[in-house]
Write a structure and sequence with these properties.
The structure is a single chain. The chain folds into two domains: 1-45 and 164-232, 3-Layer(aba) Sandwich (Dihydrofolate Reductase, subunit A), CATH 3.40.430; 46-162, no CATH class. Helix content is 23%, strand content 25%. It is built from five helices and ten strands; from the N terminus they run βαβαβββαβαβαβββ. The two termini are 19 Å apart.
Length: 232
């Protein structure tokens, strides 16, 4: 199978957390801006997040009324609503992210005007599929009941011509990619702050894997680190 080149790009606390209130702390503001600036510089063909991150960052946890789509007949298989030059890839096993339109419009150019692709399992309710078709969101299937990441990436590569993908969390989806040996680079902005006990790590349930430091930069009180897979 083919797949995009994958860079895991995240902001992290000193103690290795990537979620939590530290991200909205005033002392983390410069680090967050550095993260966005590096995101713009890395500029993939797409960025990808898990359901929780997409809901928190882009849909404000909106939940559509799927009931009006219950009895709509739709074709089987993947749905390519449009081809575009930039995509937001939502790994959302059962199609629960409440998109209201087919593109993300954001004040940051690193996220603005990207077409949304939902990556789903085959047991996603038909009403959810009909809803996404109605608003023009593309979707692909990758696995019957559990996500098959390699199949998903192969489809993203061939159906949408995504050659470079920025993986931007959260902890669970990052960990799933790491366990499958699918991350080529890690890009980290280290914020000058320690997170609280509820924060989650960069990779949930990670495996032992070696990387080499390829580049680093001091940005105000933060540090940006770029790691490449060892041996490449």
């Amino acid at each position: 199978m083919d797949r995009p080149y994958i860079i895991c790009h995240m902001t992290q606390s000193i103690d290795g957390k990537v979620t939590g209130d530290f991200l909205i702390h005033p002392d983390c503001a410069d680090s967050v801006e550095a993260y966005y600036e590096k995101n713009r510089q890395l500029k993939g063909d797409a960025f990808a997040c898990g359901r929780i991150t997409m809901e928190g960052s882009f849909t404000n946890h909106f939940h559509p009324d799927f009931s009006m789509f219950e009895n709509i007949e739709i074709p089987e298989g993947d749905f390519i609503a449009e081809k575009h030059d930039y995509y937001a890839v939502s790994f959302d096993r059962h199609g629960n992210v409440g998109w209201t339109q087919a593109r993300i419009y954001d004040e940051d150019s690193g996220y603005d005007n990207c077409h949304i692709i939902e990556v789903l399992c085959e047991d996603t309710p038909k009403a959810h599929l009909a809803y996404y078709r109605n608003i023009g969101v593309s979707y692909i299937f990758a696995g019957k009941h559990e996500m098959n990441l390699k199949l998903a990436l192969d489809k993203l590569y061939h159906l949408f011509d995504i050659k470079k993908l920025l993986l931007e969390g959260g902890s669970v989806i990052n960990g799933a990619f790491e366990r499958e040996n699918l991350i080529d680079e890690i890009s980290l902005v280290i914020a000058p702050i320690v997170a609280d006990k509820d924060g989650l790590p960069l990779f949930h349930e990670s495996t032992l894997e070696s990387f080499k430091l390829a580049e680093f930069e001091k940005i105000n009180q933060s540090v940006w680190l770029r790691y490449c897979k060892k041996g490449e």
